[in-house]
Amino acid sequence: MAESILAIPRGFKAAACSSGIKKSGKLDLALICADKPVECAGVFTTNKVVAAPVKITESRVRQGLCQAILVNSGNANACTGAPGLQDARRCGDLVAESLDIAPQMVAVSSTGVIGVPLQMPCFEEHVPDLCRMLSHDQFDGVARAMMTTDAFPKMSSRSITICGQEVRLLGLAKGAGMIHPDMATMLAFVLTDAVLADDLLELSLRQAVNSSFNRITVDRDTSTNDMVLLLASGEAENQEIAKGSAELELFNSALNEIMLELAKMIARDGEGATKLVRIQINGADELNIKARKMNLAASEQMELKSLESIHLTAYLGTLSLTGTNLVTTAKESIIQSAKSQINTMINYTLKAKQLLRLHGKHQIITADEEIRMDGERINMG
Q1: Catalytic site residue 185?
Q2: Which of 105, 138, 222, 255 is the Cys-Cys partner for 67 at CB 3.0 to 4.6 Å?
Q3: pTM value?
């Protein structure tokens, strides 16, 4: 997406460079910087093994303020022990020293090879350069510098009007493999210039993450480095968005659209994937129950390895909130049905206290586009 058609939030600058972390010479180091400390919120990996930069950043984000995000690709700085923590802190210190800001204002993020120490000379040499390169038109470079096995950079933006003032939102993400619900091997940074009431930023972020990044799977693998950060500069100078207001609903709608768009880009970019499958489950009375059952349904499709000899990527979509609990598993039925219909996506209806049964017409997989399992919905009541 060209920089000129992105809605770049006011109060932020960015820069990206090739520091030598990647032997290919591609962009591998980037910096996002706010003009001043801004409100922030974050969601992080639920993996039992957590990478050094996640530990550093999660502790800093708790204070609710951030001014810079340093991100590198090519090396995850994960499973690197105490030296890895020291290196992550040093990366943040380099930014702080160059920008003359407090180290606690710097979030650090890494993605790439696990178990290898960071190439600190690359950071020592190039972080000061990044700080001098900061500009309003380098966000495309940041999206590219975050890429590892990604086939394309992932960006999405929206512009909305709040009380007569234009408010902008911009999201950048990376991810293609090791993707499974509750985030995995993905990074996402969302920026806005909106003014929001206290505590709303985190609530809005968690709601958006739960309906987007926490609903995708590619290969059932989880990760050590996931994080999603949301920063708000307040430079739009809109009337403060209050809890329960129509303005908050409008803001959350735009944020959800961005997150969902980025999540579907990640799923569509799944390593080896040529199809995007959307599964919708109706009729469970608890959101987490429905999420687990959607995860089951999508994951079992992954276990088939392929339909039509092509890999599938599943996007787990939105759900209704009424109905009865599922008390049986659809695993064997899904597997057996799909095996018998190698060139076909089957219409599924899931009845309470019954195993999965087939109904409706078969749909031949032919298009390299999103396959919506609407009408092929798994119905739990």
Answers
A1: yes
A2: 105
A3: 0.73
